[in-house]
Amino acid sequence: MTTASSTAVPTLIGSVQRALRLLEAVGTHRDGAPAKQLAREAGLPLPTAYHLLRTLTHEGYLRRENGVFLFGSAAENLTAAQGARSRPATVTDSLAHWRDAIGVPVYCAVYREGEIELIAVADAPDAPAVDEWASFRETGHAHAIGQCLLGQLDEKDREDHLDRHPVRPLTRYSVRDRAALLERLRTLRRGEPVIERQEYALGTVCAAIPVTAGATIAAMAISVPLDREERLLPAVEQLRGEVASLLRSFVFSISI
């Protein structure tokens, strides 16, 4: 006759183990790490790592900034004091709220010290963000958020940026040269969304809106697949209303 033993092997859930290995890998990088590096360090196939990273980001345990993954608010709350858990909204929290409310990935970027800086992205498994296959920082001419930021610069700063990051087409739909880009930027109407269709990534359309937060030059953006392009303008109008409301929050403004 057999009896239960305290040394019996417990039932383990593989997906939980894999997610924990990814979290452990994130924890070893103070400034975050990209998906490929985390997959390698956790010993996971890249497709599996991508799926788990998106899920952990959706649940708030991770956040994606500038193409790398860091701990999100849910992970931070695991060790936070109970009294510190109620806090004002930040950019990351707001993007996650808008992603859920609008149903599209949401991006926030600023123009800081002469460069385009993507500071936060909120996406989900069923609404994935655009893969940064070419540096957002160096290809501002080819995506909506970059064009929106460049459109807010004065002529001197815009010319300086383009001297350092020359215009080059990324797809057959991209703006072809510097003169064409400058002409497009000159025709932008103040406060109106900037739309780009497949200029950065084939099969994707994007819209960005300028954000006024003190002296900060900033922009918010969304993206949708080309076959769902009809959602783009309604979604960006909804985002614009949400941003206008939240900009009344001092904490949100300074966190940009």
From TrEMBL:
Signal peptide: none annotated. InterPro entries: GAF-like_dom_sf (IPR029016), HTH_MetabolicPath_Reg (IPR050707), Tscrpt_reg_IclR_C (IPR014757), Tscrpt_reg_IclR_N (IPR005471), WH-like_DNA-bd_sf (IPR036388), WH_DNA-bd_sf (IPR036390). Residues 13-73 form the HTH iclR-type domain. Pfam families: HTH_IclR, IclR_C. Residues 67-256 form the IclR-ED domain. PROSITE patterns: HTH_ICLR, ICLR_ED. SUPFAM superfamilies: GAF domain-like (SSF55781), Winged helix' DNA-binding domain (SSF46785). Keywords: DNA-binding, Transcription, Transcription regulation. The keyword Manganese does not apply. Gene3D superfamilies: 3.30.450.40, Winged helix-like DNA-binding domain superfamily/Winged helix DNA-binding domain. The keyword DNA-binding applies. This is IclR family transcriptional regulator. It comes from Streptomyces bacillaris.
